[in-house]
Write a structure and sequence with these properties.
1 helix, single chain, mainly alpha, about 110 residues
């Protein structure tokens, strides 16, 4: 009788071990799948970050070029306006001098 009890206990223990082993194998498989999913997600996110960074850099470079072009245009416009102001001041001085001479001639 002891032999049969021990045999049954051993069979039960073996079944338990097989169940635990199968559970462990399933958990390992799930862990591997999870790790693979995480690795793919990490690669995707890394790629997304690189692509976003590249696009932002291109956009920045484009805006910088536009601003530099705008600056060149504004500097030229400023230079032209200064020349126009100088010419206008010169004409004003001439006209003022002509007007002053005309007044002197009328008074004399």
């Amino acid at each position: 009788m002891d032999y049969n009890k021990l045999k049954d206990k051993m069979k039960e223990a073996l079944k338990d071990l097989e169940i635990r082993e199968n559970n462990l194998i399933d958990q390992e498989r799930k862990l591997l799948l999870s790790q693979e999913d995480l690795a793919r997600e990490r690669a995707r996110l890394t790629s997304d970050v690189r692509e976003t960074s590249r696009r932002m850099e291109e956009e920045f470079e484009h805006k910088l070029r536009l601003q530099r072009q705008k600056l060149v245009g504004l500097e030229k416009q400023n230079k032209d306006l200064k020349i126009q102001v100088e010419e206008a001041e010169s004409r004003l001085e001439r006209r003022s001098a002509e007007l002053a001479m005309a007044r002197e001639c009328q008074l004399a």
